[in-house]
Amino acid sequence: MKSKIIIALLAVVTLMSCNNNKSKNSEPGEHTEKEGPEGVVLLNPQQREALDLELGTFQMRNLTTMVKTNGEMQVPPASSAEVTAVIGGNVRDIRVFHGDKVRRGQTLAILEHPDYIKLQEDFAELASRLEYLEMEYERQKELFENNVGAGREFQQVKSEYNSAKAKHQGLKARLQLLHLSPEKVKEGTISNSVPIVSPINGYVNEIDVKVGTYAGAQDMLFEITDNSEIHADFMVYENDVHLLEKGQKVHFTAANIPDKELTATIFAIGQEFEANARAVHVHASLDETVPGLIPGMYISGHIHTDENYTRTLPNDAIVSEGTKSYIFVLDEQATEAEHGHEVNHADEDEHAHDETHAEESDEEHARHEEGTHEGEGDEVMAFRMVEVVAGLQDEGYTEVKLLNPLPDDTQIVMNAAYYLLSDLKKDEAGDDD
Protein backbone atom coordinates (compact mmCIF):
# COMPACT_ATOMS: atom_id res chain seq x y z
CA MET A 1 0.00 0.00 0.00
CA LYS A 2 2.85 2.37 0.95
CA SER A 3 4.62 1.63 -2.34
CA LYS A 4 1.47 2.54 -4.30
CA ILE A 5 1.20 5.84 -2.38
CA ILE A 6 4.87 6.69 -3.07
CA ILE A 7 4.49 5.85 -6.78
CA ALA A 8 1.36 8.02 -7.05
CA LEU A 9 3.08 10.94 -5.28
CA LEU A 10 6.17 10.64 -7.52
CA ALA A 11 3.95 10.59 -10.59
CA VAL A 12 2.20 13.80 -9.53
CA VAL A 13 5.49 15.52 -8.68
CA THR A 14 6.95 14.45 -12.04
CA LEU A 15 3.96 15.79 -13.93
CA MET A 16 4.11 19.09 -12.03
CA SER A 17 7.86 19.36 -12.63
CA CYS A 18 7.34 18.76 -16.32
CA ASN A 19 4.71 21.51 -16.38
CA ASN A 20 7.09 23.89 -14.60
CA ASN A 21 9.91 23.08 -17.06
CA LYS A 22 7.59 23.71 -19.94
CA SER A 23 6.67 27.07 -18.42
CA LYS A 24 10.32 28.07 -17.98
CA ASN A 25 11.38 26.96 -21.48
CA SER A 26 8.35 28.38 -23.26
CA GLU A 27 8.92 31.14 -25.76
CA PRO A 28 7.06 34.46 -25.69
CA GLY A 29 3.53 34.01 -26.97
CA GLU A 30 3.26 30.36 -25.84
CA HIS A 31 0.71 29.27 -23.17
CA THR A 32 2.25 28.90 -19.69
CA GLU A 33 0.66 27.10 -16.73
CA LYS A 34 -1.05 29.41 -14.32
CA GLU A 35 -0.73 28.99 -10.58
CA GLY A 36 -4.02 28.78 -8.68
CA PRO A 37 -5.32 31.34 -6.19
CA GLU A 38 -4.28 31.04 -2.57
CA GLY A 39 -5.58 27.84 -0.98
CA VAL A 40 -6.52 26.35 -4.37
CA VAL A 41 -4.81 23.45 -6.15
CA LEU A 42 -5.03 23.13 -9.95
CA LEU A 43 -4.87 19.62 -11.42
CA ASN A 44 -4.81 18.72 -15.10
CA PRO A 45 -6.23 15.42 -16.41
CA GLN A 46 -2.88 13.64 -16.25
CA GLN A 47 -2.39 14.58 -12.60
CA ARG A 48 -5.93 13.49 -11.68
CA GLU A 49 -5.37 10.17 -13.42
CA ALA A 50 -2.06 9.62 -11.64
CA LEU A 51 -3.78 10.15 -8.28
CA ASP A 52 -6.79 8.07 -9.32
CA LEU A 53 -8.79 11.02 -7.99
CA GLU A 54 -12.31 10.28 -6.77
CA LEU A 55 -15.04 12.84 -6.11
CA GLY A 56 -18.10 12.34 -3.94
CA THR A 57 -20.40 13.92 -1.37
CA PHE A 58 -20.93 13.64 2.38
CA GLN A 59 -22.33 10.33 3.64
CA MET A 60 -24.65 10.01 6.62
CA ARG A 61 -23.47 7.18 8.90
CA ASN A 62 -24.13 5.98 12.42
CA LEU A 63 -20.95 6.49 14.45
CA THR A 64 -22.42 6.09 17.93
CA THR A 65 -22.11 3.24 20.43
CA MET A 66 -21.14 0.02 18.66
CA VAL A 67 -20.50 -3.59 19.54
CA LYS A 68 -17.85 -5.40 17.51
CA THR A 69 -18.87 -8.90 16.48
CA ASN A 70 -18.15 -11.77 14.12
CA GLY A 71 -19.80 -15.03 13.17
CA GLU A 72 -20.93 -16.96 10.13
CA MET A 73 -23.82 -17.26 7.72
CA GLN A 74 -26.41 -19.86 8.70
CA VAL A 75 -29.80 -21.20 7.66
CA PRO A 76 -32.67 -22.03 10.07
CA PRO A 77 -33.21 -25.69 11.02
CA ALA A 78 -36.26 -25.95 8.76
CA SER A 79 -34.11 -25.02 5.73
CA SER A 80 -31.58 -27.84 6.14
CA ALA A 81 -32.27 -31.56 5.76
CA GLU A 82 -30.31 -34.80 6.18
CA VAL A 83 -31.80 -37.43 3.88
CA THR A 84 -31.86 -41.05 5.06
CA ALA A 85 -33.46 -44.29 3.89
CA VAL A 86 -36.63 -45.39 5.70
CA ILE A 87 -35.63 -49.00 5.15
CA GLY A 88 -32.04 -49.90 4.34
CA GLY A 89 -31.09 -50.99 0.84
CA ASN A 90 -28.33 -51.18 -1.74
CA VAL A 91 -27.62 -48.05 -3.81
CA ARG A 92 -28.41 -48.76 -7.45
CA ASP A 93 -28.27 -45.26 -8.88
CA ILE A 94 -27.28 -41.71 -7.79
CA ARG A 95 -28.99 -38.98 -9.80
CA VAL A 96 -27.53 -35.76 -8.39
CA PHE A 97 -24.10 -34.18 -7.99
CA HIS A 98 -22.60 -32.04 -5.25
CA GLY A 99 -23.88 -28.45 -5.63
CA ASP A 100 -26.92 -29.35 -7.74
CA LYS A 101 -30.10 -27.39 -7.14
CA VAL A 102 -33.01 -29.73 -6.37
CA ARG A 103 -36.72 -29.32 -5.74
CA ARG A 104 -38.90 -30.94 -3.13
CA GLY A 105 -39.88 -34.50 -4.19
CA GLN A 106 -37.05 -34.81 -6.74
CA THR A 107 -35.39 -38.24 -6.87
CA LEU A 108 -31.84 -38.18 -5.50
CA ALA A 109 -31.01 -41.90 -5.65
CA ILE A 110 -32.53 -45.36 -6.17
CA LEU A 111 -32.23 -48.17 -3.60
CA GLU A 112 -33.06 -51.84 -4.09
CA HIS A 113 -33.43 -54.74 -1.66
CA PRO A 114 -35.45 -57.96 -1.27
CA ASP A 115 -37.14 -56.50 1.81
CA TYR A 116 -38.95 -54.03 -0.44
CA ILE A 117 -40.45 -56.91 -2.43
CA LYS A 118 -41.53 -58.81 0.69
CA LEU A 119 -43.18 -55.69 2.12
CA GLN A 120 -45.25 -55.26 -1.01
CA GLU A 121 -46.17 -58.96 -1.07
CA ASP A 122 -47.31 -58.82 2.56
CA PHE A 123 -49.44 -55.78 1.83
CA ALA A 124 -51.04 -57.29 -1.28
CA GLU A 125 -51.80 -60.54 0.57
CA LEU A 126 -53.24 -58.72 3.57
CA ALA A 127 -55.33 -56.45 1.36
CA SER A 128 -56.99 -59.52 -0.23
CA ARG A 129 -57.59 -61.16 3.15
CA LEU A 130 -58.97 -57.92 4.53
CA GLU A 131 -61.66 -57.88 1.85
CA TYR A 132 -62.75 -61.38 2.91
CA LEU A 133 -62.68 -60.48 6.64
CA GLU A 134 -64.71 -57.38 5.98
CA MET A 135 -67.46 -59.36 4.25
CA GLU A 136 -67.40 -62.03 6.95
CA TYR A 137 -67.59 -59.33 9.63
CA GLU A 138 -70.63 -57.73 7.98
CA ARG A 139 -72.33 -61.17 7.68
CA GLN A 140 -71.69 -62.18 11.32
CA LYS A 141 -72.78 -58.74 12.47
CA GLU A 142 -76.09 -59.06 10.66
CA LEU A 143 -76.66 -62.57 12.10
CA PHE A 144 -75.78 -61.40 15.58
CA GLU A 145 -78.11 -58.42 15.38
CA ASN A 146 -80.95 -60.73 14.23
CA ASN A 147 -80.21 -63.18 17.08
CA VAL A 148 -79.34 -65.91 14.58
CA GLY A 149 -75.56 -66.21 15.00
CA ALA A 150 -73.60 -66.86 18.14
CA GLY A 151 -72.04 -63.87 19.85
CA ARG A 152 -68.74 -65.67 20.29
CA GLU A 153 -68.27 -66.19 16.54
CA PHE A 154 -69.14 -62.55 15.88
CA GLN A 155 -66.59 -61.31 18.43
CA GLN A 156 -63.88 -63.56 16.96
CA VAL A 157 -64.50 -62.35 13.42
CA LYS A 158 -64.64 -58.73 14.62
CA SER A 159 -61.29 -59.11 16.39
CA GLU A 160 -59.61 -60.64 13.32
CA TYR A 161 -61.06 -57.97 11.09
CA ASN A 162 -59.90 -55.05 13.27
CA SER A 163 -56.43 -56.59 13.66
CA ALA A 164 -56.06 -57.09 9.92
CA LYS A 165 -57.38 -53.60 9.27
CA ALA A 166 -54.78 -52.03 11.60
CA LYS A 167 -51.95 -54.05 10.07
CA HIS A 168 -53.18 -53.09 6.60
CA GLN A 169 -52.99 -49.39 7.52
CA GLY A 170 -49.49 -49.85 8.93
CA LEU A 171 -48.18 -51.57 5.79
CA LYS A 172 -49.86 -48.93 3.64
CA ALA A 173 -48.13 -46.15 5.59
CA ARG A 174 -44.75 -47.89 5.19
CA LEU A 175 -45.26 -48.14 1.43
CA GLN A 176 -46.11 -44.45 1.28
CA LEU A 177 -42.95 -43.59 3.24
CA LEU A 178 -41.03 -45.54 0.60
CA HIS A 179 -42.85 -43.55 -2.11
CA LEU A 180 -44.55 -46.70 -3.45
CA SER A 181 -48.20 -46.65 -4.51
CA PRO A 182 -50.43 -48.95 -2.36
CA GLU A 183 -53.07 -48.97 -5.10
CA LYS A 184 -50.62 -50.27 -7.70
CA VAL A 185 -49.38 -52.91 -5.25
CA LYS A 186 -52.98 -54.06 -4.75
CA GLU A 187 -53.26 -54.43 -8.51
CA GLY A 188 -50.17 -56.65 -8.51
CA THR A 189 -47.47 -54.15 -9.56
CA ILE A 190 -44.42 -55.03 -7.45
CA SER A 191 -41.21 -52.97 -7.55
CA ASN A 192 -37.80 -54.17 -6.40
CA SER A 193 -36.51 -50.61 -5.84
CA VAL A 194 -37.53 -47.41 -4.08
CA PRO A 195 -36.62 -43.75 -4.75
CA ILE A 196 -34.86 -41.50 -2.23
CA VAL A 197 -36.37 -38.02 -2.69
CA SER A 198 -35.51 -34.54 -1.44
CA PRO A 199 -37.76 -33.30 1.39
CA ILE A 200 -37.09 -29.59 0.63
CA ASN A 201 -36.00 -27.23 -2.13
CA GLY A 202 -32.31 -26.36 -1.98
CA TYR A 203 -28.79 -27.37 -2.95
CA VAL A 204 -26.98 -30.68 -2.46
CA ASN A 205 -24.19 -30.01 0.03
CA GLU A 206 -23.10 -33.56 0.86
CA ILE A 207 -23.31 -36.98 -0.80
CA ASP A 208 -22.24 -39.80 1.52
CA VAL A 209 -23.06 -42.85 -0.63
CA LYS A 210 -21.63 -44.73 -3.58
CA VAL A 211 -23.25 -47.01 -6.10
CA GLY A 212 -23.35 -50.58 -4.81
CA THR A 213 -22.93 -49.79 -1.12
CA TYR A 214 -25.54 -50.69 1.48
CA ALA A 215 -27.32 -47.70 3.03
CA GLY A 216 -28.76 -48.37 6.47
CA ALA A 217 -31.95 -46.82 7.74
CA GLN A 218 -29.98 -44.47 10.05
CA ASP A 219 -27.22 -43.54 7.59
CA MET A 220 -27.20 -40.00 6.18
CA LEU A 221 -27.19 -40.24 2.39
CA PHE A 222 -27.52 -36.59 1.37
CA GLU A 223 -27.57 -33.14 2.95
CA ILE A 224 -29.80 -30.50 1.35
CA THR A 225 -29.69 -26.79 2.26
CA ASP A 226 -32.11 -24.06 1.23
CA ASN A 227 -29.96 -20.91 0.97
CA SER A 228 -32.96 -18.65 0.30
CA GLU A 229 -33.54 -18.44 4.06
CA ILE A 230 -29.91 -17.65 4.93
CA HIS A 231 -29.26 -15.23 7.79
CA ALA A 232 -26.33 -13.86 9.81
CA ASP A 233 -25.41 -15.64 13.05
CA PHE A 234 -23.15 -13.43 15.21
CA MET A 235 -21.42 -14.10 18.52
CA VAL A 236 -21.53 -11.33 21.14
CA TYR A 237 -19.50 -11.55 24.36
CA GLU A 238 -21.23 -11.40 27.73
CA ASN A 239 -20.05 -7.89 28.66
CA ASP A 240 -21.93 -6.45 25.62
CA VAL A 241 -25.12 -8.53 25.76
CA HIS A 242 -26.98 -5.95 27.86
CA LEU A 243 -26.69 -3.45 24.96
CA LEU A 244 -28.57 -5.67 22.50
CA GLU A 245 -32.21 -5.42 21.44
CA LYS A 246 -34.32 -6.87 18.67
CA GLY A 247 -34.57 -4.55 15.68
CA GLN A 248 -31.04 -3.14 15.95
CA LYS A 249 -29.00 -2.83 12.76
CA VAL A 250 -25.84 -4.79 12.05
CA HIS A 251 -23.31 -3.63 9.45
CA PHE A 252 -20.97 -6.40 8.33
CA THR A 253 -18.79 -7.75 5.54
CA ALA A 254 -18.57 -11.31 4.22
CA ALA A 255 -15.39 -13.17 3.30
CA ASN A 256 -16.19 -13.45 -0.43
CA ILE A 257 -17.28 -9.79 -0.86
CA PRO A 258 -15.04 -7.81 1.54
CA ASP A 259 -15.45 -4.51 -0.35
CA LYS A 260 -19.23 -4.36 0.11
CA GLU A 261 -20.87 -3.50 3.42
CA LEU A 262 -24.05 -5.48 4.11
CA THR A 263 -26.80 -4.69 6.61
CA ALA A 264 -29.06 -6.95 8.68
CA THR A 265 -31.67 -6.56 11.42
CA ILE A 266 -31.57 -8.53 14.69
CA PHE A 267 -34.62 -10.80 15.07
CA ALA A 268 -33.48 -13.20 17.82
CA ILE A 269 -31.01 -13.10 20.73
CA GLY A 270 -29.77 -16.28 22.39
CA GLN A 271 -30.62 -16.82 26.05
CA GLU A 272 -27.63 -18.95 27.06
CA PHE A 273 -23.85 -18.62 26.80
CA GLU A 274 -21.56 -20.83 24.81
CA ALA A 275 -19.59 -22.74 27.42
CA ASN A 276 -16.09 -21.91 26.17
CA ALA A 277 -16.55 -18.56 24.42
CA ARG A 278 -18.79 -16.94 27.05
CA ALA A 279 -20.82 -15.44 24.21
CA VAL A 280 -24.40 -15.64 22.97
CA HIS A 281 -25.73 -16.17 19.46
CA VAL A 282 -27.41 -13.19 17.82
CA HIS A 283 -29.47 -13.87 14.68
CA ALA A 284 -30.07 -11.14 12.10
CA SER A 285 -32.06 -11.24 8.86
CA LEU A 286 -30.52 -9.65 5.76
CA ASP A 287 -32.06 -6.34 4.68
CA GLU A 288 -31.60 -7.24 1.01
CA THR A 289 -31.02 -10.36 -1.05
CA VAL A 290 -27.30 -10.86 -1.62
CA PRO A 291 -26.20 -13.54 -4.12
CA GLY A 292 -23.17 -15.67 -3.34
CA LEU A 293 -23.68 -16.08 0.41
CA ILE A 294 -23.47 -19.69 1.63
CA PRO A 295 -23.85 -21.27 5.08
CA GLY A 296 -20.66 -21.37 7.13
CA MET A 297 -19.13 -18.28 5.47
CA TYR A 298 -17.16 -16.08 7.92
CA ILE A 299 -18.57 -12.58 8.58
CA SER A 300 -17.48 -9.67 10.78
CA GLY A 301 -19.04 -6.33 11.60
CA HIS A 302 -20.54 -4.13 14.28
CA ILE A 303 -23.94 -3.62 15.88
CA HIS A 304 -25.26 -0.09 16.39
CA THR A 305 -26.91 -0.03 19.80
CA ASP A 306 -28.35 3.47 19.30
CA GLU A 307 -29.08 5.74 16.35
CA ASN A 308 -27.40 9.10 15.75
CA TYR A 309 -26.51 9.57 12.10
CA THR A 310 -23.89 12.17 11.31
CA ARG A 311 -22.04 13.62 8.31
CA THR A 312 -18.93 11.55 7.41
CA LEU A 313 -16.19 11.18 4.80
CA PRO A 314 -13.59 8.45 4.13
CA ASN A 315 -10.44 8.88 6.21
CA ASP A 316 -8.38 9.61 3.07
CA ALA A 317 -10.59 12.63 2.33
CA ILE A 318 -9.36 14.43 5.47
CA VAL A 319 -5.83 15.68 6.08
CA SER A 320 -4.41 17.19 9.25
CA GLU A 321 -1.80 19.89 9.68
CA GLY A 322 -0.91 20.67 13.24
CA THR A 323 -4.13 20.84 15.20
CA LYS A 324 -6.34 21.61 12.20
CA SER A 325 -8.08 19.34 9.71
CA TYR A 326 -8.92 20.08 6.08
CA ILE A 327 -10.82 18.71 3.11
CA PHE A 328 -10.61 19.70 -0.55
CA VAL A 329 -13.75 20.61 -2.51
CA LEU A 330 -14.23 21.30 -6.19
CA ASP A 331 -14.18 25.08 -6.74
CA GLU A 332 -16.41 25.48 -9.79
CA GLN A 333 -15.84 29.22 -10.13
CA ALA A 334 -12.07 28.85 -10.09
CA THR A 335 -12.36 25.92 -12.52
CA GLU A 336 -14.48 27.96 -14.93
CA ALA A 337 -12.10 30.92 -14.63
CA GLU A 338 -9.11 28.70 -15.34
CA HIS A 339 -10.93 27.10 -18.27
CA GLY A 340 -11.70 30.54 -19.69
CA HIS A 341 -8.05 31.49 -19.29
CA GLU A 342 -7.02 28.39 -21.28
CA VAL A 343 -9.55 29.15 -24.01
CA ASN A 344 -8.20 32.72 -24.40
CA HIS A 345 -4.66 31.40 -24.78
CA ALA A 346 -5.91 28.85 -27.28
CA ASP A 347 -7.55 31.64 -29.31
CA GLU A 348 -4.32 33.66 -29.26
CA ASP A 349 -2.29 30.67 -30.41
CA GLU A 350 -4.80 29.95 -33.15
CA HIS A 351 -4.65 33.59 -34.33
CA ALA A 352 -0.87 33.49 -34.46
CA HIS A 353 -1.02 30.19 -36.27
CA ASP A 354 -3.37 31.68 -38.91
CA GLU A 355 -1.05 34.65 -39.52
CA THR A 356 2.00 32.46 -39.90
CA HIS A 357 0.28 29.87 -42.11
CA ALA A 358 -2.16 31.91 -44.12
CA GLU A 359 -1.65 29.57 -47.04
CA GLU A 360 -3.11 26.61 -45.08
CA SER A 361 -5.93 24.93 -47.00
CA ASP A 362 -9.55 25.01 -45.80
CA GLU A 363 -9.50 21.25 -45.27
CA GLU A 364 -6.42 21.39 -43.03
CA HIS A 365 -7.91 24.32 -41.12
CA ALA A 366 -11.13 22.35 -40.54
CA ARG A 367 -9.10 19.46 -39.16
CA HIS A 368 -7.33 21.88 -36.82
CA GLU A 369 -10.66 23.29 -35.61
CA GLU A 370 -11.98 19.77 -34.98
CA GLY A 371 -8.92 18.86 -32.92
CA THR A 372 -9.31 22.04 -30.89
CA HIS A 373 -12.90 21.19 -29.96
CA GLU A 374 -12.03 17.59 -29.08
CA GLY A 375 -9.51 18.80 -26.49
CA GLU A 376 -11.89 21.12 -24.69
CA GLY A 377 -12.91 18.36 -22.23
CA ASP A 378 -9.35 18.03 -20.90
CA GLU A 379 -9.66 21.05 -18.61
CA VAL A 380 -7.80 21.89 -15.46
CA MET A 381 -9.88 21.47 -12.29
CA ALA A 382 -9.52 23.67 -9.20
CA PHE A 383 -9.83 22.29 -5.67
CA ARG A 384 -10.18 24.59 -2.67
CA MET A 385 -8.95 23.69 0.82
CA VAL A 386 -11.68 23.94 3.49
CA GLU A 387 -11.05 23.72 7.23
CA VAL A 388 -13.28 21.28 9.16
CA VAL A 389 -13.41 19.65 12.58
CA ALA A 390 -12.83 15.87 12.56
CA GLY A 391 -14.85 13.79 15.03
CA LEU A 392 -15.44 10.08 15.66
CA GLN A 393 -13.89 7.42 13.44
CA ASP A 394 -15.18 3.97 12.50
CA GLU A 395 -14.64 1.43 9.73
CA GLY A 396 -12.59 3.81 7.57
CA TYR A 397 -14.91 6.82 7.97
CA THR A 398 -14.55 10.02 10.02
CA GLU A 399 -17.22 12.37 11.33
CA VAL A 400 -16.97 15.84 9.75
CA LYS A 401 -18.20 19.06 11.37
CA LEU A 402 -18.27 22.13 9.12
CA LEU A 403 -17.08 25.51 10.33
CA ASN A 404 -18.92 27.12 7.42
CA PRO A 405 -21.90 25.58 5.59
CA LEU A 406 -21.44 23.88 2.22
CA PRO A 407 -24.13 22.92 -0.32
CA ASP A 408 -25.33 19.33 -0.01
CA ASP A 409 -24.16 18.53 -3.56
CA THR A 410 -20.62 19.86 -3.03
CA GLN A 411 -18.10 17.62 -4.80
CA ILE A 412 -15.36 16.56 -2.38
CA VAL A 413 -12.01 14.85 -3.02
CA MET A 414 -12.49 11.42 -1.40
CA ASN A 415 -9.05 9.82 -1.55
CA ALA A 416 -6.10 12.16 -2.08
CA ALA A 417 -6.31 15.04 0.41
CA TYR A 418 -2.75 14.39 1.67
CA TYR A 419 -1.25 14.84 -1.82
CA LEU A 420 -3.22 17.98 -2.54
CA LEU A 421 -2.01 19.52 0.72
CA SER A 422 1.58 18.53 -0.13
CA ASP A 423 1.26 20.15 -3.56
CA LEU A 424 -0.22 23.29 -2.01
CA LYS A 425 2.64 23.57 0.48
CA LYS A 426 5.19 22.99 -2.29
CA ASP A 427 3.75 25.87 -4.28
CA GLU A 428 3.80 28.12 -1.23
CA ALA A 429 7.44 27.22 -0.57
CA GLY A 430 8.25 28.02 -4.21
CA ASP A 431 6.60 31.44 -3.91
CA ASP A 432 8.71 32.22 -0.81
CA ASP A 433 11.88 31.48 -2.78
Tell me the layout of helices and strands.
Blueprint: H1 2-25, E1 40-43, H2 45-51, E2 55-56, E3 59-62, E4 66-74, E5 80-84, E6 89-94, E7 101-102, E8 107-112, H3 114-145, H4 151-177, H5 182-186, E9 193-197, E10 202-207, E11 214-215, E12 220-225, E13 231-237, E14 249-254, E15 257-269, E16 279-286, E17 298-304, E18 309-314, E19 319-321, E20 324-330, H6 332-356, H7 362-374, E21 381-394, E22 397-402, E23 412-413, H8 417-432
Antiparallel strand pairs: 1-21, 2-23, 3-18, 4-13, 4-17, 5-12, 6-8, 6-11, 7-10, 8-9, 10-12, 13-16, 14-15, 14-17, 15-16, 18-22, 19-20, 20-21, 21-22
Helix pairs in contact: 1-2, 3-4
Protein described:
By secondary structure, the chain is of the alpha+beta class. It is 34% helix and 31% strand. It is built from eight helices and 23 strands. The strands form five sheets. Strands 1, 3, 18, 19, 20, 21 and 22 form a seven-stranded antiparallel beta sheet that branches. A hairpin with a 2-residue loop joins strand 21 (381-394) and strand 22 (397-402). Helix 1 packs antiparallel against helix 2 (45-51) and helix 3 (114-145) packs antiparallel against helix 4. The protein is elongated, with a radius of gyration of 40 Å. The chain starts with a helix and ends with a helix. The model is unreliable at 1-6, 17-34, 355-361 and 363-377 (pLDDT under 50).
